[in-house]
């Protein structure tokens, strides 16, 4: 048997390989694995006929009448020999403590798995179904139903005796039953019924749509989504039925509940879509007559055409290697059909398709036969039996069963996923051989076939990441792992990240791979070093260099040195950038210095290498060497280096280099640090460069005229040679330069303005004026000079010199009026001499004279007005009274000026200086000085005070 199975599996894999198409990019929603261990042993000798699932264990029935209790891994925990023929169904209550079993030979057993409670009965016909009450553990719920040719309800009375009642018969074998809460749903050859255990009423009848299908070959699949929603799958039809409470006003003789079949529109692969409506099933009590209450249908309106939804094939890896998915041969479509209500003879409303109806909908149709249904949250899981036609032989064959997930929406039903499953022996299986069981607690789905049991599970985050990695979607996988870090069990963010880096490297995206290292490797120094060596092996150290850690963590110095050597061999600019950006303590500085020196031997003038070497010297605190390079390169950082590290002692012999580089910055620095480099030292160093010496001394003089006074004599020649515009200001401001030396230099160089200034400063104003008039021939400057000197003899010399020179006369006439009487000049002008602009000059003289007269008169008026105002103010002040009381004393005798006896006569003199005297204490006025004065103020030379008040009594 094992050999046959191996041959079967081999041929199955070959057929799978032949039929595989390009794998889908859609991620599967479920993952699959075979239930092995004990199940494998059982199915090697027997065949599975049915199965039921509890959250804690599984119960498997076989064709040889055995019932096995299994754990979730498929290991056998218990075995029951119930019959010698096929077990048709197993039922468990919600507690998992009671089990019901029925078999093909009519045997029914209900017993406690952990108690001695037991029920045995053998019927004279095969029992196809059994269902125990979900709360069978309770004493008030000791009920179960069995079904063969009729549906029987067994109940245990208060005396522990079992009694049975017929719920339904006469419509063929009952082949499916589901019990949820107080509702029992079952299917026979004619349709589906629902019975309310509480009210003891049958509340609906949903007829079978396709009567051409044999009910024993294509049995009905029932599934309770919740306590009020029943999903019915039969043939190719699926209906969703909702049990609802009837309003009190509608009760009459009707059951308290009714069923409404909601219609959804859906499309798959372009199928038509119709509007959503609903049909409410109106049912009457079974005891009422058939014409008691007609059913009411809602209006049905045709809807729009639906859009294309997805029909996906499972990727080969979606079955965990055991169940390779295969592409679906054709895309199934769903169609919709309206229902009409019809009353049966027993008073229960049934529903049948409306002939020729095109509008409203109550069910959808698939192209495949339904073998099982199960809910998945708000979705629906459908197990389908597929038959296909061979292209070669044109004969039908059994294809792999499908497991679809369908999402009901407000306007459509969308197919979420569709997987074709490779189960053992699927070529020989029929629709009735497949069963779909589910565990609500863990969303597990068991696909049961005679030779195989497959478990479908919802894919978790680990599975999602597996799929992303398989599709090489590393970025998404990394993001998913980070978001669900607490939920993933098999994957680690670091492992995914490393795989991502390797993937990018393999693709040649080195920059992207290096960038990801920063995020993925984090502070793991060992992994950083490993990745750096890997990048070195492929010659891409440059790519990872910008992202190497520089603080926390710090890698081995060899890593950084290796990277720097890589740049030094091929990219000087990149090398310089790393030296600037990386802290000097990351690598062995001396090693890199030696390497740079070696390259400078080949290219000694390379500015990039020289500058970098200076930076390395700076890191190594070899500031003098760094400064020398900076000065050679004339680099702006030289001054910053000197200031920062106080290198003034190192630049005493490099002052010329500094001045050549940037004389302004150098002078400012030298003057700011006179205490570190003396003026004398600077002047000595610049002795051979007088132009630089002048720059230094000039700025020194501008800062402080006295500090460099010993060099003022030297500065005369320096100004004369390099900066004549500033010579005259220097001569004017300096009081320490020797005038004779300065005059000699200026006369040698024929500096007229400077010579004029020096002559005037030395007291030889006439010689200075002579130079202005004779050398410069500038009457305005001569007049200006005469005004500055304000010497009458000088004006006389100027007039004498100008008397025969008309331009000079014009200049004097225009400017002399304010200093010299113009009449003196006019009388000396020779008759007949032609003088330019004489009239204008005379008019100006008259105007200046009138202006002087007006100014004098104005000043006189102002003086008179001010004098009068002050006189009046003084008079008002002197007319004011002065307070005299007992506290005032005589400044002469120092006794109170007022007598203690008010009746006694007294005489007091009070001066404007506020000093007070008894009259008899003052000197007697004489003929030469009749006025009286304050003795105190007169003695202090403050000016005599005059009496302002004499008080007598």
Q: What does this molecule look like?
A:
With 953 residues, the protein is of the alpha+beta class. Among the domains are: 345 residues, no CATH class; 90 residues; 118 residues, no CATH class; 71 residues, no CATH class. The strands form ten sheets. Strands 18, 19, 20, 21, 22, 23 and 26 form a seven-stranded antiparallel β-sheet that branches. Helix 12 runs antiparallel to helix 13 and helix 20 packs parallel to helix 22. It is elongated. It starts with a helix and ends with a strand. Belongs to the VPS41 family.
Short description:
The chain has 953 residues and is α+β, with helices and mostly antiparallel strands. Helices cover 35% and strands 22% of the residues.
Structural class of the secondary structure composition? alpha+beta
Distance between the termini: 162 Å
Largest sheet: 7 strands, antiparallel
Low-confidence stretches: 1-23, 264-361
What's the helix count?
29
Characteristic key phrases:
953 residues; alpha+beta; four-stranded antiparallel beta sheet
How are the secondary structure elements laid out?
Elements: H1 2-19, E1 30-34, H2 38-45, E2 48-53, E3 58-62, E4 66-70, E5 76-81, E6 87-92, E7 98-103, E8 107-112, E9 118-122, E10 129-132, E11 143-147, E12 150-156, E13 162-169, E14 176-180, E15 183-187, E16 191-196, E17 201-207, E18 221-226, E19 229-234, E20 237-245, E21 257-262, E22 278-281, E23 335-336, E24 339-343, E25 349-353, E26 364-365, E27 369-376, E28 379-385, E29 387-389, E30 396-398, E31 402-408, E32 413-420, E33 435-439, E34 444-449, E35 452-458, H3 461-470, H4 474-483, H5 493-506, H6 510-521, H7 525-537, H8 541-544, H9 557-570, H10 572-581, H11 589-602, H12 607-619, H13 623-633, H14 637-645, H15 655-661, H16 663-672, H17 679-685, H18 690-703, H19 712-722, H20 727-733, H21 739-748, H22 752-761, H23 765-776, H24 779-789, H25 792-802, H26 806-815, H27 822-828, H28 838-879, E36 907-911, E37 916-918, H29 935-939, E38 947-952
Helix pairs in contact: 3-4, 4-5, 5-6, 9-10, 9-11, 10-12, 11-12, 12-13, 13-14, 15-16, 16-18, 18-19, 19-21, 20-22, 21-22, 22-23, 23-24, 23-25, 26-28
Biased composition (Acidic residues): 14-26
Subcellular location: Cytoplasm, Cytosol; Early endosome membrane; Endosome membrane; Late endosome membrane
CHCR repeats: 667-811
């Amino acid at each position: 048997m094992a050999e046959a199975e191996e041959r079967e599996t081999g041929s199955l894999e070959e057929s799978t390989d032949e039929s595989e198409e390009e794998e889908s990019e859609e991620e599967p929603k479920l993952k699959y694995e075979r239930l092995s261990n004990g199940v494998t042993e059982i199915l090697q000798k027997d065949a599975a006929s049915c199965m039921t699932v509890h959250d804690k264990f599984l119960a498997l029935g076989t064709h040889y009448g055995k019932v096995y209790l299994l754990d979730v891994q498929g290991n056998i925990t218990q075995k029951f020999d119930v019959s010698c023929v096929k077990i048709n169904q197993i039922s468990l209550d919600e507690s998992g403590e009671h089990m019901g079993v029925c078999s093909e030979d009519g045997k029914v057993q209900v017993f406690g798995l952990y108690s001695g409670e037991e029920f045995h009965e053998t019927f004279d016909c095969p029992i196809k179904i059994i269902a125990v009450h979900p709360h069978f553990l309770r004493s008030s719920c000791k009920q179960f139903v069995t079904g063969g040719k009729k549906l029987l309800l067994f109940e245990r009375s208060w005396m522990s005796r079992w009694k049975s009642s017929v719920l339904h018969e006469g419509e063929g074998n009952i082949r499916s039953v589901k019990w949820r809460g107080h509702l029992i749903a079952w299917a026979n050859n004619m349709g589906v019924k629902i019975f309310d255990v509480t009210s003891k009423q049958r509340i609906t009848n949903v007829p079978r749509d396709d009567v051409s299908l044999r009910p024993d070959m294509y049995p009905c699949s029932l599934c309770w989504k919740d306590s009020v929603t029943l999903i019915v799958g039969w043939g190719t039809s699926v209906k969703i039925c909702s049990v609802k409470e009837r309003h009190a006003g509608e009760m009459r003789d009707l059951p308290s509940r009714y069923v409404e079949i909601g219609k959804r529109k859906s499309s798959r692969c372009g199928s038509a879509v119709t509007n959503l409506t609903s049909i409410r099933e109106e049912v009457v009590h079974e005891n009422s007559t058939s014409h008691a209450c007609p059913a009411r249908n809602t209006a049905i309106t045709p809807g729009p055409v639906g859009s294309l939804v997805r029909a996906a094939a499972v990727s080969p890896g979606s079955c965990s290697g055991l169940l390779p998915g295969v592409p679906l041969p054709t895309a199934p479509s769903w169609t919709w059909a309206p229902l009409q209500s019809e009353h049966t003879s027993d008073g229960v409303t049934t529903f049948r398709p409306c002939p020729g109806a095109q509008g409203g909908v109550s069910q959808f149709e698939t192209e495949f036969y339904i073998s099982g249904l199960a809910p998945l949250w708000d979705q629906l899981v459908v197990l389908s039996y597929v038959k296909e036609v061979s292209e070669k032989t044109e004969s039908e064959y059994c294809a792999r069963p499908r497991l679809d997930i369908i999402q009901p929406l407000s306007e459509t039903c969308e197919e979420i996923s569709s997987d074709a499953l490779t189960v053992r022996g699927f070529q020989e299986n029929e629709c009735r051989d497949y069963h779909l069981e589910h565990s609500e607690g863990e969303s597990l789905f068991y696909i049961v076939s005679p030779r195989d049991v497959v478990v479908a599970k919802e894919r978790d985050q680990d599975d999602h990441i597996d799929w992303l990695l398989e599709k090489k979607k590393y970025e998404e996988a990394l993001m998913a792992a980070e978001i669900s870090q607490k939920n993933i069990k098999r994957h680690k963010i670091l492992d995914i990240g490393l795989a991502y880096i390797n993937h990018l490297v393999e693709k040649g995206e080195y920059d992207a791979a290096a960038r990801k290292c920063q995020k993925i490797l984090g502070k793991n120094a060992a992994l950083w070093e490993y990745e750096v060596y890997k990048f070195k092996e492929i010659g891409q150290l440059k790519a990872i260099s910008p992202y190497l850690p520089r603080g926390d963590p710090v890698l081995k110095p060899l890593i950084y040195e290796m990277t720097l050597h890589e740049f030094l061999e091929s990219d000087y600019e990149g090398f310089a950038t790393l030296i600037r950006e990386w802290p000097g303590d990351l690598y062995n500085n001396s090693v890199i210095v030696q390497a740079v020196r070696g390259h400078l031997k080949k290219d000694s003038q390379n500015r990039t290498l020289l500058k970098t070497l200076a930076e390395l010297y700076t890191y190594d605190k070899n500031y003098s060497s760094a400064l020398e390079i900076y000065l050679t390169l004339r680099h702006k950082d030289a001054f910053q280096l000197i200031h920062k590290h106080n290198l003034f002692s190192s630049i005493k012999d490099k002052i010329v280099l500094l001045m050549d580089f940037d004389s302004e910055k150098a002078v400012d620095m030298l003057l700011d640090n006179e205490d570190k480099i003396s003026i004398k030292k600077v002047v000595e160093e610049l002795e051979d460069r007088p132009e630089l010496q002048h720059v230094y001394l000039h700025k020194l003089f501008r800062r402080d005229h006295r500090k460099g006074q010993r060099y003022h004599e030297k500065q005369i020649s320096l100004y004369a040679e390099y900066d004549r515009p500033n010579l005259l200001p220097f001569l004017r401001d300096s009081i320490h330069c020797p005038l004779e030396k300065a005059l000699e230099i200026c006369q040698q160089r024929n500096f007229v303005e400077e010579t004029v200034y020096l002559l005037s400063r030395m007291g030889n104003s006439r010689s200075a004026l002579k130079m202005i008039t004779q050398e410069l021939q500038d009457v305005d400057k001569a007049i200006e000079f005469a005004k500055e000197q304000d010497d009458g003899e000088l004006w006389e010399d100027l007039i004498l010199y100008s008397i025969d020179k008309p331009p000079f006369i014009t200049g004097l006439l225009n400017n002399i009026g304010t200093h010299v009487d113009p009449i003196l000049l006019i009388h000396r002008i020779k008759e007949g001499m032609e003088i330019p602009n004489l009239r204008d000059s005379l008019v100006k003289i008259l105007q200046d004279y009138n202006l002087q007269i007006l100014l004098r008169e104005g000043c006189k008026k102002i003086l008179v007005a001010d004098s009068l105002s002050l006189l009046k103010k003084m008079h008002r002040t002197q007319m004011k009274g002065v307070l005299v009381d007992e506290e005032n004393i005589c400044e002469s005798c120092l006794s109170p000026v007022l007598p203690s006896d008010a009746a006694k006569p007294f005489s007091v003199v009070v001066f404007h200086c506020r000093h007070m005297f008894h009259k008899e204490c003052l000197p007697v006025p004489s003929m030469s000085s009749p006025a009286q004065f304050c003795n105190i103020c007169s003695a202090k030379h403050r000016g005599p005070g005059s009496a302002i008040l004499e008080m007598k009594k």
